[in-house]
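Lab channel / #folding
Pinned by the channel admin:
"Please post every new chain as: sequence first, then the structure tokens as a reply. Keep commentary short and put observations after the output so the thread stays searchable."

First post following the new format, from NK:
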Amino acid sequence: MNKFDKFLRHRQSLLMQYKMGDMTKNEFIEENYYYVESLGIQPFTRVDNVKKAIYNYHYHNIHAKYWQHIANDPRNTEKERQAYYAKSNSHYREKDRATLQLLRLIDYNGVEAYYVNVKSSLLKGKLIEIVIHNPDVLMEINVPDSTYEQDLLILHTKNPGIAEDLRKNGVLREDKRKSLADSYINQKY
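Reply from TO:
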């Protein structure tokens, strides 16, 4: 099994532990971060297939959340906090770039997007859930003896440029829905 498949299998295991209540959101974020770091795989500079785009999305999403979590530590000085937030925001920008690369690689086939109901005032009316139902994409990332997000690939963004791109391609609905990952996205960390 290659490192990418090991990464997906480990991530699935962590997701199950989180969903079953065996770990908190912070533990989930930290475990993901430490595992990605232990693999030693940096994000791909040339993204020419779905696996690379998905890895880059997860890599940057994990790092963005981790550094945001670290920034919120009350023991930080204001200067440290700002540096950690800057690092987090940089990873969020790269995550959005990976999202666009993935959507373009699959030509928006099997994609559904909508705004989600959130508790956070900072995310209200901004957070978009992108659900990929495309069986060809899911086959490319399928981990043996495992399902990936119950046969769905779920991404999130609040990037207005991605929202516009989703609209242009006829896959963004303007209505708000409950997220398929509602308990996760609405839990503070």
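NK: The first helix runs from residue 3 to 19.
TO: also worth noting, Strands lie at 111-116, 128-132, 153-157, 172-177.
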